[in-house]
Amino acid sequence: MIGVHWIYWLAGAFFASTGALIAFDAQHPRRATSAAFWLLLGICFIAADVRTMPAWLIGIGVIAMALLAGTGHVVARRVAGGRPSAPASEPRPDARREGNLVFAPALTIPAVTIIIATAAKGITLHGQPVLARGQETLIGLGVAVIVALGLAVGLFCPRRPQLALCEGRRLLESVGWAVLLPQMLTVLGGLFTQAGVGGAVGLLFQHVVPDQSRDAAVFVYAAGMALFTLVMGNAFAAFPIMTAAVGWPILVQRWGAHPAPLFAIGMLAGYCGTLCTPMAANFNLVPPALLDMRDRYGQIKVQVPTALALFAVNCLLLLSVPFA
Amino acid sequence: MLSLLGVAAVVIGFALRMNPLLVVTAAGIFAALLAGMSPLHIADAFGTGFASSRSISIAFIVLPVVGLAERFGLQQRAQDLIGRARRLTAGRLLLLYLFVRQTAAALGLTAIGGVAQMVRPVIYPMTEGAAWRTLGRAPCAELKDRLKAHAAAVDTVGAFFGEDVFVAVGSVLLITSYVNANYHLHLDALHVALWAIPTAIAAFAIHGARLLILDRMLSGTGARQSRDAGGTR
């Protein structure tokens, strides 16, 4: 059976190679600490699959990375022209030579991913599925990247194939510390759960729900989903808590709301919160870093008006549909 | 109630505009200490949390492919291509992408799209190229930032309010498994997914309208600039 771990190793190797390239870059402004960050990230990615490795050791590595990056010691090397990593021996890019074929490697990635995630999903060998269940899309992405990389090297014929790693390093460095943030938020969510944040929030909202007004209770449910998602960065964390505190006991049991539309639209009210929060880093902070935006919160600012309007729509739907 | 201090730490940290990574790490340690965890337990939680959440960071492995293609003129080509499609303005292009992204996600194909794989190499350069044509010159840095924000927002809005319509997706399964296990209901995933459709349509209408407004803003800026230029001559 093909599992998912080799993809983590592939990613770990890419992160570590970025660290190595920085370690040998004499002109990097924060050479030692930046190299340490990316090497550590790569090592932790791979070491997490080593059975004998105690989890606390990886934990210390993760905290060390956060301290390095959080105190401004991990930066990208920027020089005039924005091309720090290209070897001088490479020729200037010429877009006309390949024509529209230049899109082929990038478009190969979704195409191959989907073929593997859907078609190869059903293939079995001796009654066992070939791809690990539930991981088909990730495995597909891993295979797709290898295929696309081979295609890109064959198509562009760079004088040195490691140019791909140099260019990957350029993009990875421009994302910078934001690479670690989504995973760190998952850790935070777990710690919050262990500390009992969910129960406390639920208790809080139970106290503010008005007794006599059905519409006000609906609004508290929707607003609670959005606000709690705003803080946790994830509507999935808000859903069980708001449902246990307000959705089930008050809206369904007392006011007789229909569960399917109530919970489906309630979750979407939470999504409106996701659009507005830096805590949903992989959706709202990583893209601005990937696009080299000067304002890290620029995407959130664009999404807020849509989120507010959609929240209003969801409230109206919640007031009518589950009670029809 | 003491645990809410951990949440307060996050809010204060972000409000003070401190580095998010530092805020999140410190708040996590703080919340864990409030819960009475030992330092070894805290380090353990960071290690296991990191190990089990690695799939979120997997999207970064596309960067060598995207970087290599960019080096050989991918973004330039995307701009040239859009230069020929005269009717495709920046807003209409993003509207088209919103439609494709949302529809694909609703069919369970969230792998189509993504900022690293699609927006940075293809969609954004095309958007900038289209805006260039509307304005009659290169967009200024501020406007570029705004266009980038819009391109990224389309990707996120499309994915969010599309995938919820698909039955076998995390949020729908979370709702049915949580509710059915805890309240002994028999909610059908298809039913839950169906009720995501009205919001999905509203999301397309609202965000789509804003993209067309972006177009009017762009053509307004372009017209004003050429008028100003004419006046000084």
Write the layout of secondary structure elements.
The complex is a heterodimer of chains A (about 325) and B (about 230).
Chain A: H1 5-23, H2 31-47, H3 55-70, H4 95-98, H5 104-118, E1 124-125, E2 128-129, H6 136-156, H7 163-175, H8 181-195, H9 197-208, H10 214-232, H11 235-254, H12 259-274, H13 281-284, H14 286-290, H15 298-320
Helix pairs in contact in A: 1-2, 1-7, 2-3, 5-6, 9-11, 10-11, 10-12, 10-15, 11-12, 12-15
Chain B: H1 4-15, H2 20-34, H3 39-52, H4 63-71, H5 74-84, H6 90-106, H7 115-135, H8 141-163, H9 170-183, H10 189-194, H11 197-232
Helix pairs in contact in B: 1-2, 5-7, 6-7, 6-8, 6-11, 7-8, 8-11
Structure description:
- The complex is a heterodimer of chains A (324) and B (233).
- In chain A, α1 packs antiparallel against α2 (31-47).
- Chain A folds into 2 domains: 5-80 and 96-177, no CATH class; 181-323, no CATH class.
- Chain A has 324 residues and is mainly alpha-helical.
- In chain A, β1 and β2 (128-129) form a beta hairpin.
- Chain A has 15 helices and 2 strands.
- In chain A, strands 1-2 form a two-stranded antiparallel ribbon.
- The longest helix of chain A is centred in the C-terminal third of the chain and has 23 residues, at 298-320.
- With 233 residues, chain B is mainly α.
- Chain B has 2 domains: 4-52, no CATH class; 63-232, no CATH class.
- Chain B has 11 helices and no strands.
- The mean pLDDT of chain B is 88.
Throw out a few tags for this protein.
A: 324 residues, mainly alpha, 2 domains, globular, B: 233 residues
Oligomerization state of this entry? heterodimer
Structural class from helices and strands of chain A?
A: mainly alpha
Question: In angstroms, what is the radius of gyration of chain B?
Answer: 23 Å
Residue-averaged pLDDT of chain B? 88
Sequence of secondary-structure elements of chain B: HHHHHHHHHHH
Poorly predicted ranges of chain B: none
Helix content of chain B: over 70%
Gyration radius over CA of chain A: 24 Å
- Low-pLDDT stretches of chain A are 80-91
The number of helices of chain A is 15
Strand content of chain A: under 5%
